[in-house]
Amino acid sequence: MNRGNKLLDYVKLLDSSIHVGGFTHSFGMDVHIAEGSIRNADDLESFMRCQLHPSIVRLEGMAIKGIYSATDHNDTWRTALIDKLVHVQRTPSDQREQAAAMGKRLIKLARALHPWIEFSQLEHTLAKYESVGCLSTVHAWINHYLDIPVEEAVMGYLHSAMNACITEASRVLPMPNETTQELLVRLAADLEHEWNTVSASAADGPAQPTSMSMKSLFPSFHMLGAGLHAYRA
């Protein structure tokens, strides 16, 4: 099976129509809808551009990139630390058990799809450092193992998250199908622009494994100070 087919099969697991593809949170969108601050397509587009896109790019997107770099250097400690950072920053405390279950479910589904992958390596890392295995971490590790370029892994995850939110919002907001499709096209372009901007600004020079700092593996981690020491791997 060639790499393209492997990626296509794997990306199906992130489809919002199945439970694991729905991600573990709505990035606050559901709260805004319930409170009435998101009432139509224009409100939704503003929320996605101003809040969701910057958030998922700087946290999940850069975490995926960081995990790729950590895995390249066989640095399991930093893989676990990035995973914990994403977990405590993104997931509300009352949903963390559910979030951990989502990552385990993705491992289970991917193991059935790709039985030759040595998932015991990832499971050992998570157990050794008492880490969680959140969705973006597992996604990054699987794609790295499949030799999927990091940019494809990041964009696959980000687009899946965006699509999941739009799909969920379209169920409760008065948006015709044509409006939804046009919104998806505009937001896809905006999301890619956001990622290209953030990724370029955080570009790292060559680094040796022995001298790599946390910033070189997760360039946006300095914005995520809360929980770093409390959840040290």
How would you portray this structure in words?
This protein has helices at 3-11, 29-35, 41-72, 76-90, 96-113, 119-128, 135-145, 150-170, 177-201, 214-217. It is mainly alpha-helical and 233 residues long. It is globular. Keywords: Chaperone, Nickel insertion. It comes from Paenibacillus illinoisensis. InterPro entries: UreF, UreF_sf.
Shape: globular
The biggest sheet, with number of strands, parallel, antiparallel or mixed sense and barrel status, is: none
Summed up, the helix count is 10
Q: Segments where pLDDT lies below 50 for 5+ residues?
A: 18-22, 205-213, 221-233
What number is the mean pLDDT?
78
Percent helix, as a range, is 55-70%
Structural class: mainly alpha
Number of strands: 0
- What is the end-to-end distance? 36 Å
Q: Compute the gyration radius: what is it?
A: 17 Å
The arrangement of helices and strands along the chain is HHHHHHHHHH
Q: Classify the beta-strand content into a percent band.
A: under 5%
InterPro entries: UreF (IPR002639), UreF_sf (IPR038277)
Keywords: Chaperone, Nickel insertion
Pfam families: UreF (PF01730)
Protein name: Urease accessory protein UreF
